[in-house]
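Anyone? Bumping this.
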Amino acid sequence: MNFHQMWEIASSPDNVPIVALLFLVPFYCWYAFRQALANDRLIEKLEADPAAAKTAHRKTQPYHPKWEREVHTWPYLMRMELVAAILVTALLMVWSITLNAPLEEPSNPNVTMNPAKAPWYFLGLQEMLVYFDPWIAGVVMPTLIIVGLLAIPYIDENPLGNGYYTYKQRKFAIWTFMFGFIGLWVVMIVIGTFIRGPGWMWFWPGQTWDASRVEFAVNRNLDQVFGVDGTWIAMLLPAAHKAYAPILARTIFGIFPLVIYFLVAGYAMFRVMTWTPFARKIFQRMTLLQILTTNIVMVFMLSLPIKILLRLLLRIKYVWVTPWFSV
Amino acid sequence: MPEDNGEEKKTGLLDRVRSDVKTLTDTVKEKGKEEINALKEPEKTQLYRSVFRVKHDEEPRNRALSVLSNVFFHLHPAKVNRDATKYNFTWGMGGITFYLFVVLTFTGVLLMFYYHPSKVQAFRDILYLENDVPFGKLLRNMHRWAAHLMIIAVWLHMFRVFLTGSYKRPREFNWCVGVLLMVLTMLLSFTGYLLPDDQLGFWAVTVGTNMGRATPLLGSEGPFGAQLGMTPYNDVRFALLGGSIVDANALLRAYIWHCIAIPLIAAILMAVHFWRVRKDGGISGPAPVMLESEIKDERKPRPVVLKPSGMQ
């Protein structure tokens, strides 16, 4: 175990935010779910007793019938804001005095940094470059993330859980978001920071970052696994174009796994969307456009872990190889 | 007589001095007390009232006025949900994000005094800042760490808004504004990364913009880019960098996006964001819990684009 290496990565000033995320994200998850479960218990109690539900105070916050429902912004909210501003300023001061912003050598196009890493908040995208070509990892996926986020309020047809923490009433939405935010975004950033060393190679925590390490490229494409070489198509082509047969065969072959993936994953996501009786009830409320959007966004989300598994377990690089692009 | 006179004068003078001193000390004591008492209630002083115009006795009307009649505070409603003032619902992340934006604007403007966005000077300016400018190092550190913190705060804010379902009707559009603001925050940070013109920023931006080369249709190495006549000298990456490599033009573009364009766009969107928080009925909660049995019209699907806001 190379603890020195670990410490060097974790204590690098620019990585402090990621170390902070490692604590902040679990803390706020716990903080949110503690309130969600408290609300869920209240909901269960009220659902069991419809008569009480009509008169009960429907919050888990402390309550007294004599208290006003609203309080003055000044001073009750603004003093909190002042305290928050002071605490943040103090934190920033301490942070800025103790840790210096990194400054490397002057920029030099002739000397490549190894590893050349993007800013930490884009490391998820850079890590995605291992599994997808740049046009997917760097352009299509970020666009889909933004579009997917923008679509959330318009595809979530569940009217419950508006303005309070709950898990029970929004299982599907919460699982999907946690999977995307923590599983696909935060975890990828952590991998990009702590695991990826020189040459963007995989180094386990504690393994020495060895710049001279060589990895043998054992990756194959799916058509090579299936031995697609275009012999059948060559027989159909005129003699002058027989050389194109392997390319044509690969291009045609690759469409099938993709279509199969979209069908299977689409169906699987449909099953997820209609898993519980409550989910089916919400599904009934959704319009066709909402169902399709939800389904497609989820199929694309799922494609990342699928591709990671294909790559890391089965050593498959591309599923679909064409002369213009590869997937 | 002259002696008497003298004595009289003497006693008169002494008495007068004595009585003057007494009056003075009494006055100082009295006025000092008054002054100190005034300090206990600064809001009653002329100075305070000249600045804040409105009397601030602690009565409901004045508490409301203190918010409504102040240009900076009137973004708030006069009253808020009693439970919303506690930390546990909002985590304060939206407010902290905005505060960090203010901190970044402040430190950023100070940094601009010492920075020239040119290949010749940019890196030297950073060295100058770090070594010679009083508190220059602190200034740069604060700007960088506040930027990192702002990104974390934005993410946690979005996380909280999602978990409380606050994007649901009628707040759909404000969620979208928020998503755009998050993207802008990350772009702000990214464009700032290049400005020190060191190896770290140079290669990070090189890696980042190389992805632009792979844009479908618009990038020279993207799918069908070459077929559409895209080369490294006319594709979308060229537009971003103002050249085919990360060089002087890229530095200037990053600088202008970072210091002028994106902050302006973000400020406009922030205005919309805050305004919509108010117009959509304040922050979403903590709201009373709703029960499954209370869902209305279970089978009445309507097209999203035609569904009027506020309908359940």
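Late reply, but here is one note on the structure posted above: The first strand of chain B starts at residue 79 and ends at 81.
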